[in-house]
Design goal:
The structure is a homodimer of 212-residue chains. With 212 residues, the first copy, chain A, is of the alpha/beta class. The first copy, chain A, folds into two domains: 108 residues, Rossmann fold (3-Layer(aba) Sandwich), CATH 3.40.50.170; 99 residues, Rossmann fold. In chain A, 33% of the residues lie in helices and 24% in strands. In chain A, the strands form two sheets. A seven-stranded mixed sheet of chain A has the order 3-2-1-4-5-6-7, sandwiched between helices. In chain A, strands 8-9 form a two-stranded antiparallel sheet.
């Protein structure tokens, strides 16, 4: 039997460390997915470079003049690109713009994001710094479906990470990142296996339980 | 050498399960504290009954006519009661009223609370239900210093608890409660040992590290 590989499109704005983790999981045979294309709103994003190095299509698509969102025209170009690559799941990996109606509607229930905090604590930017400065003793990361809010969609997996007295924002971020790499691949694998069922705000994992 | 026992006053409104856990830890010799008095704003609170059963002074003190706070006169009576019992630390254990200026000022830096969620997520009432309905995959509990906000003070210890697909609010609450019982005693022991240092919003634990 040949396992079908889920066609994934990745949106990234930065260095693409989560992208790299997905690539590694796929190449190690632990994730039944295929990254068809990596798109960035930043022309020289390191994520694009990483994609090319692994033979993955890598596109910069002009986001338009707005700072925090894509213009409607830009969203249309992003949607078209996903369509052209036969993408069935969008994985945000450090994509720094808020997706709006056009993109969300075109991929309803098929967009995932990884956030470096235990949502609903510390949504938005610099979540690790927010957590550190608040003084929490437990932080972590969250994979969730993307909806129209900022980091508000139904949660698929969370992993907790201790905050230590001698931590800095950097050391905490590093420890959280390791867990991000693990749970993002896990969540995409569950999606690929068709095991995620959304009931209101709760995401139920069907079949044998996977611990977060 | 005779270990000095920290004199503690407990405020409780309900069944007092966290009070019972503290009593058990003390009686088992794991917590160098002595509960001098349990005070309730509810005349027939089970917590008062528990206290009496263990030979601890138990007082109902009329909270006054307001629903969510103590009146200033009532706060004065609570403060006086703590003073009369030589209390050096106040432990809130399911106390359902918000403490105001008079009480806070009289016990600055000497009031702890246990909250059944990973703050700053889900402050306020019915935190376990809030977490369950939000659909988080990790919840937990928090011991924190009490300040003038609702569940906003500096965090001493947090423990994480997984949320399972087959959980109910009751089963989740039960699992969180076990951790509450553990970390509340741990935090009070650290306070008794003089090992908690507050730096801005962060609480540093001095001496050998204790994992939350």
């Amino acid at each position: 039997m040949i396992t079908r590989r889920l066609p994934v499109g990745v949106l990234a704005s930065g260095r693409g460390s989560n992208l790299q983790a997905l690539i590694d999981h796929i190449e190690a045979g632990r994730l039944d997915a295929e990254i068809r294309v990596v798109v960035s709103d930043v022309k020289d994003a390191q994520a694009l470079e990483r994609a090319r190095r692994h033979g993955i299509d890598a596109c910069y698509i002009d986001p338009g003049p707005r700072r925090t969102i894509l213009t409607a025209e830009a969203e249309e170009r992003y949607v078209q690109c996903m369509r052209d690559h036969g993408v069935e799941l969008i994985a945000l990996a450090g994509f720094m713009r808020i997706l709006k109606e056009r993109f969300l509607a075109a991929h309803a229930g098929r967009i995932l994001n990884i956030h470096p905090a235990l949502l609903p604590s510390f949504p938005g930017l610099q979540a690790q710094r927010q957590a550190f400065e608040y003084g929490v003793k437990v932080s972590g990361c969250t994979v969730h479906f993307v909806d129209a809010g900022i980091d508000t969609g139904p949660i698929i997996i969370q992993a907790s990470v201790p905050v230590r007295d001698d931590d800095t924002v950097a050391s905490l971020s590093e420890r959280i990142l390791e867990e991000e790499h693990r749970i993002y691949a896990e969540a995409i694998q569950l999606f690929a296996e068709g095991r995620l069922r959304v009931e209101g705000r709760r995401v139920i994992i069907e079949g044998p339980r996977v611990e977060g």
